[in-house]
Amino acid sequence: MSIKDWPESERPRERLLAHGADTLTEADLLAICLRTGLPGRSALELARAALDRFGSLRGLLSAHHDELIALPGFGPAKAAQLIAVLELARRALKEDVRDGDVLATPAKVREYLRLYFLGRQDEAFVALYLDAQNRLLEVEELFRGTLTQTSVYPRVVVRAALRRNAGAVIFAHNHPSGVAEPSRADELLTHSLKDALALVEVQVVDHIIVTAGSTLSFVERGLL
């Protein structure tokens, strides 16, 4: 039965408008994004099947667009809708981080970085450039590598920081393996960047490693 044939009090969209989004399940919210189902299968049934297929909402949103398109009842249009929803969330959180003192809201920074790297299967290295008041100037992906290593050149990082007149920088990279522990190479790179940036009076505030389920701060670990 199509959702439009359900009693109004049971329809996800109507329940959201009447009682708020936080009262709905992940499947309900996903069904609203999907809008339509298939003959004999409602949008809610498609949503539940998609969540089961990837094990969680995070798993679904981390999926490659080809995997989304292959889901029964999805196709390019519904896959694009989900990708667009995720990108809107990233941009909204980036605005939230940009509006205040980054160092006063470390949880927001980590949340943004987890969304930034969500679904990435390659390792990437990014810089969050800050002004003298610790406000976010820009986020730049400096390097992209393989699943196991990224080549990062201090002279390129210094040049990028000077170009933005940054007073400080937070580095972050992801570990697609899911292990947040820093390698010896990660530690050596961080100190190399810190020393290079100190020559131009740019402070390295932190280096954050991001996985799908956690983050690790070099500062909190005593590594910086």
Quick structural summary:
Helix content is 47%, strand content 15%. By secondary structure, it is of the alpha+beta class. The protein is elongated.
Structural overview:
- Helix content is 47%, strand content 15%.
- It has 224 residues and is of the alpha+beta class.
- Strands 2-1-3-4-5 form a five-stranded mixed sheet, sandwiched between helices.
- It is elongated, with a radius of gyration of 21 Å.
Q: How many structural domains in the coordinates? A: 2
Order of helices and strands: HHHHHHHEEHEHEEH
Radius of gyration: 21 Å
Strand arrangement, largest sheet?
2-1-3-4-5
Number of strands: 5
Beginning-to-end CA distance, first to last residue: 58 Å
CATH class of the largest domain: Alpha Beta
Please name the defining characteristics of this protein.
224 residues, DNA polymerase, domain 1, Cytidine Deaminase, domain 2, alpha+beta
Topology at a glance:
Elements: H1 12-19, H2 26-34, H3 43-54, H4 57-62, H5 65-69, H6 75-98, H7 106-117, E1 124-130, E2 136-144, H8 154-163, E3 168-174, H9 184-198, E4 203-210, E5 215-217, H10 218-221
Parallel strand pairs: 3-4
Antiparallel strand pairs: 1-2, 1-3, 4-5
Helix pairs in contact: 2-3, 6-7, 8-9
